[in-house]
Fold these 3 entries.
Entry 1:
Amino acid sequence: MAIRTIRTYGDDILRKKSKIVDEINPRILLLIKDMKETMYNSKGIGLAGPQVGILKRIIVIDIGNGPMALINPEIIETMGANVSNEGCLSIPGVQKNVERPNEVTVKALDEKGEVVVINGEGLLARAFCHEIDHLDGILFVDKAIDDEEK
């Protein structure tokens, strides 16, 4: 395992759309391990493939309940809305208010290649939305509802 360099705002890769993962092989599993290690080392709660320079549809999240890795995640349902402050490992030192769904249902593959459907609310829903946005080249500052840096 290795800590990877987190790409920061202004790096073109953060604006590109990630590709579907066709096969879960040892390289993909190593990438996931590296992403988890990188996320923890940076004291983040989520990380997406493009943030470590890999345009693959992979995210890792840990909001304090243990790590999860999702491959080819897609949001299949949303409910409610709330506004809260967000930050991003790729935009250090910047926080903005962003409106996100209060609840989301995500369908993805786990590390074994099995389909999982996960319901998340609150912080987990926010993390799902934030990280899945990264896979489409969208950054939280694009959705910010204020211009104040906090």
Entry 2:
Amino acid sequence: MDISIFLAKFWGWYLIIFFLILSLNPKRIKQIFTDLKDEKFLIISSFMAILFGLINILLHNIWEPNWKFIITLMGWISLILGLLLFIFPKRTIAFLQFINIKLVQVIYTLLFFTGLFLLNMVYNIVPF
């Protein structure tokens, strides 16, 4: 299986599942920010983000102007967010909370449509 297809499936399903969980149970958002104040949770979360981002970048660092760019961007965002959480935890958490409060609907809608787009590229549900 092509790595682009695999990562599009991974990120597509991940984003859809994440969107559904946060939409059906909005208390999870508050719980995530509460848990980020715990050092152990913060370190594990940042290491996971760094790991996912680094693996994504090493396997798929394609900077072409097509759907594969989104996969590369997801990897870089994950890596950078993980590094920021690990190096500057308090400032990063404060920034994420600010963004979440101001742009919550835009972010979750973007997550949903990005996931749908990636899954559509893989499964070709709506050809274009």
Entry 3:
Amino acid sequence: MTPGPARRTRNARGEGARLRTELLAAASRLLAGGDPAAVTLRAVAREAGVAAPSVYGHFPDLDALLLAVVEQHLAELRAAFDAAVAGPGHAEERLRAGALEYCEWGLRHPGAYAVVFGGRAVRLLTEAEAVAFEDGEAMLDSLGALVARLPGVAAADVAGLRLAAWTGVHGVVSLRSGKPGYPWPPLADHVTAVLTGVLPRGGG
């Protein structure tokens, strides 16, 4: 007989925050499987080793849980991107470093990436969703600031080029995740090719 999931040790009084953290971690592990649709409140409870009703003490529904996961992972992605672009080098080098880190993060966390950018977390635009995506907007603002420093870029072109760069790196993550058997070039070369196609050439 196959044993069931291990039961979680009950938290002591005042440790409810620990359970919330464990539920988010459980949801993240399930998302790492690459199929966000497989994540349900019952599945998260089972993964965390708690009874399903325990989840409702922290998240009223699946959307609230997934929104919290979005907030967590967007903050992680932003931190990774910010660290990459903070390194030495001119604007083009830093932009490529940030774009590469963005793609590496997305490929390391395919389930979380799908939830963040695939619209799975929240069905309607709400104030809560806008707050959750503040980290995403801040990351795009950083990308735009680097684009603005590239030689030959006019202020009027920055928004369009920022969108083109983001679209390009998102395509890299989506294609490589969806077609892992394709003979892709090394990731750094792929990112460079995409950015070369949408951004002005030359060092900054």
